[in-house]
Amino acid sequence: MLRVLFFARVREQVGCDSLELPWSEDRATVHGLLSGLCQRGPQWQAALGQPNLVVAVNQRVADSAARLQAGDEVAFFPPVTGG
Length: 83
What we know:
The structure is a single chain. By secondary structure, the protein is of the alpha+beta class. It is built from three helices and five strands, in the order E-H-E-H-H-E-E-E. A hairpin with a 2-residue loop joins strand 3 and strand 4. Helix content is 28%, strand content 25%. The relative contact order is 0.29. The protein has a single domain, classed as Ubiquitin-like (UB roll), CATH 3.10.20.30.
């Protein structure tokens, strides 16, 4: 299983704070997971397709090529701005 978490504006846009998904070869990378999630509909595409979306795998910032394994936790959140 993969535990997928959504925070802040991303959570509001997709309408949930977490999902449990079975690990599969098409979800073996962050890119593959994102592709599958975006197929859930336009609100998912808008939330997960935004530029500078931050992704963390097991609480470490990762890029779209990061490999995923069963048991991983993947979190998506918008970029944080400060001032």
